[in-house]
Amino acid sequence: MTESPPPVVEMRGISLAFPGVKALQDVDFQLFPGEVHALMGENGAGKSTLIKTLTGVHTPDSGTVLLAGETVAFTSPGDAQQAGISTVYQEVNLCANLTVAENILLGREPRKLGGIDFKAMRTQAAAVLARIGVHIDPASVLESHPIAVQQLVAIARAIAVDCRVLVLDEPTSSLDAGEVAELFRIMRVLRDEGVAILFVSHFLDQVYEIADRMTVLRNGTLVGEHLTKDLDRRALIAAMIGRELGALEAIEDASERRTASGPVLVRAEGLGRKGAIAPFDLDIRAGEVVGLAGLLGSGRTELARLLFGADKATEGKLLVDGAHLHLRGPRSAIAAGIAFCSEDRKGEGLVADLSIRDNLVLAMQAARGWSRPVSRRVKDQLVEKYLAALDIRPANPDALVRTLSGGNQQKVLLARWLVTEPRLLILDEPTRGIDIGAKAQIQQLVTSLAAEGTAVLFISAELEEVVRIADRIVVLRDRHKIAELDGGSSIDEVVGLIAGEHLSEEVAS
Amino acid sequence: MTALTTKLPSRFLPVLATVVLFALTFGVGSGLYDGFASGQVIANLFIDNAFLIVLAAGMTFVILSGGIDLSVGSVVALSTMVTAAGLKAGWPLPLVIIAVLVIGSTLGLLMGLVIHKFDIQPFIVTLAGMFLARGLCFLISVESVSIKDSTFRDVATAVIELPGGVTITYNVIIALVVVAAALFVLHRTRFGRTVYAVGGNEQSALLMGLKTARTKVGVYVISGFCSALAGLLFSLYMLSGYGLHAVGMELDAIAAVVIGGTLLAGGVGYVLGSLAGVLVLGTIQTLISFQGTLSSWWTKIVIGALLLVFIAVQRGLIRERR
């Protein structure tokens, strides 16, 4: 917060290129001890790349990294850790098969008589956990804890060494509001101890709550560095996306425009699956957006998977166009025109080692069968159309999906399903972990698809988003469908229903 | 999700199942045949399978790290060949032993380096190693070479009396020392824990700053060393070197490790499980020889069935994990 001490980290003129992508161009960055510094930018702006350059995963093509005034060149994450730079990634990068204590101390464990001293290790681990106020058994196996606790264990590992710089790369994306508050408490404790914290999050509320200073990146270049109090949200967003933010407002108009809806496309009658979701009735009409609201674990994804045939229903039936459809699996759902965009885009959606073009073609070819090849010309047309329509960047059909940012991967996944021209599109958390610009584009796409007559089932943890774009909102709680609201409902109404007898504190931004 | 809290016991379940299986098969044998439940039968289990125990210990490292080593059988054969040929040529015994161990470890090192540096599947690299080692045997001699060195024969036939009149060979001692060393390394050293970490999630292990490269190469060196040592034990057992020794033994070793409860996906397993796995295989063999009329190939059939069952159980456990 104060600027008297010299920066602990200084990066000067960092440039780094990947095949076909200039990830970073001449970026400067500085981090002071005892501050929380937010790194802001859209997906693909180069945040992750900059972090990985700092932590030794990538080596910059040019530019220098100074740690406490001395030039350093890390060649591995281990080097960076040795120098006091610890990182906690978005996905918990620990070994779930080992114990909590091992995960915290492996690589620097106490030893006795040539072997690991497990007793001392557990004591040390417990001390580190106590420092951040987490009380779990260090001898327990990591995978026996929920993700949020695993995330805290990752932080414990990061601070178990004499850590001068703590990098938190989207640590909050899988945490609920209470857990985020806990994380922030820990961050403040560490900051006050003089640790420099680099924080990345897509939630502006969180950034404004915790960050002292922010650096904004756009398209791999530095836009500016500001104190949080000097930069209001509007200016920040404008800096991040570099254009006037009319996009979000436009969507609200769009959803108001549509009131008429077509015939019932998909009807669920008493559909349910034991242990996953209680029997529910649901109509989805052509040309409407149905939002699914509920807390994590309320049965949102389970409901979607039933409609898609990914899980078998144990009771009830599904009607498409008024005719009973027996879903034997996703293939029969796809044949009936139902598409499902999974929330796990890496695991269940895309083939990361194929190009954008191949990923798009894959879905189309699967729909046509192998005996009717798609001509190169048709392929190119389609790919070009969707690259432009979804503003996928880089707009290079031959770029490998692996090299794209999260938001662009999500767009490719969407495009892949759109290629098959579905009649019902199920989107499970399509905007999670992606930036505002891409979010707005995806929301806009959803509304325009609906306007063209596609039915959309939209699942999101962000109530604001659901309320904004849905024509109808289905509310889930504890694996039961508890209500159906009109699109005009306010967030408060939905929150009230979800919260029920619980407190409403868990509803995240 | 709710089952996650009861995770700890299920990790030991496969090992426990193997131990129970061993007790069961042994119990069946004791019930059916007189003299089955004797100390010497148990001792013979160890004597006849000492080399397999050593192989399985090395293989446990590799499989725990998420890899596989198909070359071990061939390296055993090569080791018997080098031993026999070396002794025949008049090399002193210590030199022969050192040469064998160095050759085995070096082969493991080379395979590990290729796997790591070129990021090639261990299956294919060790398959190449398997052909290479087998071929090298016949470069030395196409015939079986018997071992006539008197010191070597003395060691081979020497017995140690245990209380109760039970006798074992030095092979058994060596095998048990290897198992104890493996236990220590896997559970008490940073290297060993890194093996588990790499098998659990290699990417995470790397980001945690662990020395994954060294570990991945290291497990193949250990496996190579164990194969060479097993080759020496096999030479003691057979008193000959031959290019057709130990054909398919890599599969016995893998079977023992898997039956012992180690996940083929890596990250979960215990070297004591592998020991139990070897003992199960040995007991089945003993049962069939006691029975007397069944073909010894029934051993293979039973092993096949057991493997299927254990793989299915593991599959269930992995599903639960995700």
Automatic annotation (TrEMBL), chain A:
PANTHER family in alphabetical order: CARBOHYDRATE TRANSPORT ATP-BINDING PROTEIN MG119-RELATED, GALACTOFURANOSE TRANSPORTER ATP-BINDING PROTEIN YTFR
Membrane topology: Peripheral membrane protein
UniProt keyword annotations, A-Z: ATP-binding, Cell membrane, Membrane, Nucleotide-binding, Repeat, Translocase, Transport
InterPro entries, per the entry: AAA+_ATPase, ABC_carbohydrate_import_ATPase, ABC_transporter-like_ATP-bd, ABC_transporter-like_CS, P-loop_NTPase
Record's protein name: Sugar ABC transporter ATP-binding protein
GO terms, molecular function: ATP binding; ATP hydrolysis activity
UniProt key word Repeat: yes
Organism superkingdom: Bacteria
GO CC, any one term: plasma membrane
Annotated localization: Cell membrane
Native organism: Lentzea aerocolonigenes (Lechevalieria aerocolonigenes)
Lineage: Bacteria, Bacillati, Actinomycetota, Actinomycetes, Pseudonocardiales
Any one Pfam family match given in the protein's UniProt record, by short name: ABC_tran
ABC transporter domain span: 9-244, 260-503
Automatic annotation (TrEMBL), chain B:
Annotated compartments: Cell membrane
Chain segments annotated as coiled-coil in the UniProt record: none
TM segment ranges: 12-33, 45-63, 93-115, 122-142, 162-186, 217-238, 297-318
Domain of life: Bacteria
Primary localisation category: membrane
Membrane topology: Multi-pass membrane protein
Keyword match Cell membrane: yes
InterPro entries listed in its UniProt record: ABC_transp_permease
UniProt keyword terms in alphabetical order: Cell membrane, Membrane, Transmembrane, Transmembrane helix
One example GO MF annotation: transmembrane transporter activity
Gene Ontology CC: plasma membrane
Protein name listed in UniProt: ABC transporter permease
